[in-house]
Amino acid sequence: MPPPRKWRLDLGSEVSDLTDGLGDWTDSSAGLSYRLSPQTTISGRTRLATRFGNTDVQIEGRVDQAFSPAFSAYALAAATPDADFLARYSIGAGASWQVVAPAKVFGPLSLNVDARYDNFADADVTSIQPWLQGYLLDGRLGLSARWVHAEDDIGTRADGYVLRADLAVTPHVNLFGGYADAPEISDGTLVPTRTVFGGLSVDVSDPLTLRASIAHEQRPTFDRSIFGLGLTARF
User: What is the C-alpha to C-alpha distance for residues 69 and 178, in angstroms, rounded to an integer?
Assistant: First the structure.
């Protein structure tokens, strides 16, 4: 039996086309994680983003811990030196609790929460996102519903939701799609955004997965079409 793969490399890149002649945005990331033990994983991630001629580089560290087969949590910290539009620094945490174990037809049901604090040059934004995820059809169909609440340091509040479905078409091909009507945190501002998104992932081999995605956003001042490619390698 081969030894368990403790390393994971995630690479991804997105190109966004903006309407009204506003040009393109790009957003690329590289992440590396290592399983210290069956319960603990540490990871680092670098993000390179460009918007309107400005470029930001963000560095993030994260720790994931499984406290039992049904309960896990994580914590992260990120920093952007000389930030133009990304948060200067961020801290976040979250947890997942499996409240219903897998059955024959119905898969596991989990309650989850993500919380984050972002410090921008001109604003501080706190967000919290409780969400529910369940599985049907022997675990091949996953459904999730997420509530998004965000608030800045002067009391501006925004709420929204994200709905998503994941379908395992074959043991090696997975599709996903969804709709979001939720605030987008853009340069410290809460921007109401409606998004339709979808994509697929293909397990090319046991250690290698390829991903592709597409999304369309409607914002108050412009629309944005996003095209993404990525891969995950385990070793």
Answer: 28
Residue 64 region by backbone torsions, left for phi larger than 0, else alpha for psi between -120 and 50, else beta:
beta
Q: What is the mean pLDDT of residues 194-202?
A: 98
CATH of 7-234, one of 2.40.160.40, 2.30.30.100, 3.90.650.10, 1.10.472.80: 2.40.160.40
Distance (Å, rounded) from C-alpha 97 to C-alpha 91?
21
d(CA 15, CA 20): 16
Cα–Cα dist 197/176, whole Å? 8
The domain ranges of the chain are 7-234
Q: What is the pLDDT of residues 114-153, one digit of tens each?
A: 999 999 999 999 999 999 999 999 889 999 999 999 999 9
Tokens of 106: 């119905």
